[in-house]
Specification:
- With 255 residues, the protein is an alpha+beta fold.
- It has one domain (2-245): Phosphatase 2c, domain 1 (4-Layer Sandwich), CATH 3.60.40.10.
- 31% of the residues lie in helices and 28% in strands.
- It has helices at residues 45-63, 72-96, 144-150, 198-201, 206-214, 219-232, and strands at residues 2-8, 18-26, 31-40, 104-113, 116-122, 126-131, 134-137, 181-186, 192-196, 239-245.
- The strands form two sheets. Strands 1-10-9-6-7 form a five-stranded antiparallel sheet.
- Strand 2 and strand 3 form a beta hairpin.
- The longest helix is centred in the N-terminal third of the chain and has 25 residues, at 72-96.
- The N and C termini lie close together (10 Å).
Length: 255
């Protein structure tokens, strides 16, 4: 498996409130964890929320790493509980400090264990699977425009220009209780996974994303090209991309 991750402030924002990790979680079980988080809140609190979320999840998973050797349901529980743990930490910090009141973050995480891929997701950051000549979004946006599309009030092509496109309906740290989307997928050799914040997905169409990654010389170059494309489209938000290539039986070059 090979991977790379990069984040960029974009062309408009004064602070980068995105955070990400690409980490080896357990070498014995060949498990890696990837997280992309997009913070929100005044007084730069979004940066605090996304940083806390990433760190708390990683800490929780390392403290409960024995779950990785158990059944699939235990791994799913590990992902869900790690996100709920982070939600509790961020939420409590937000209510104890007026500067952080109302802060929160989107969060999309992927755990690769052998040929299995587990997802934990809250908000409108995204996870894509690129397989052969197709690209599939594995996550559902928790946003107002996504709800409007679902009930038929607006068409998908109207979403990018909708005046309330930035309204999130579910985020980590904004409320005491949190519902987390959990899923798992079987991976194949040469599959490519992309985790990204909406600074990328709002600027670059899905098929463009697939073509850019297909034309990149390596995973790091893919991240650079994706970020450059988002900035060329306006760069109105922070931009984060994590690109992972599955190479069964090949060398590991995680970073």
């Amino acid at each position: 498996m090979k991977s790379a991750g990069k984040t960029d402030i974009g062309l408009v924002r004064k602070v980068n409130e995105d955070n990400y990790i690409c980490e080896m979680l357990d070498p014995d079980s060949k498990t890696w964890v990837f997280i992309a988080a997009d913070g929100m809140g005044g007084h730069n609190a979004g940066e605090v929320a996304s940083t806390m979320a990433v760190q708390e999840i990683l800490s929780y998973m390392r403290s409960n790493i024995e779950a990785l050797s158990m059944e699939e349901r235990h791994i799913r529980d590990l992902i869900r509980n790690s996100i709920l743990h982070a939600n509790d930490k961020v939420y409590k910090k937000s209510i104890l400090n007026t500067h952080y009141m109302g802060m929160g973050t989107t969060l999309s995480m992927g755990l690769v264990k052998g040929s299995e891929f587990y997802i934990g997701h809250v908000g409108d950051s995204r996870i894509y699977l690129i397989r052969d000549s197709g690209i599939t979004r594995l996550t559902e946006d928790h946003s107002l425009v996504a709800e409007l599309i679902k009930i038929g009030t607006i068409q998908p092509e109207e979403a990018k220009h909708h005046p309330q496109k930035n309204v999130i309906t579910r985020a980590l740290g904004t409320e005491y209780a949190l519902e987390v989307d959990i899923a798992s997928y079987a991976l194949k050799d040469k599959d490519i996974i992309l985790l990204c914040t909406d600074g990328l997905s709002n600027m670059v169409e899905d098929e463009e994303i697939r073509q850019i990654i297909a034309g990149a010389k390596d995973m790091e170059n893919a991240c650079d090209m994706l970020i450059d494309k988002a900035k060329h489209g306006g760069g109105y938000d922070n931009i984060t991309a994590i690109v992972i290539q599955i190479n069964e039986g090949g060398d590991c070059d995680d970073r």
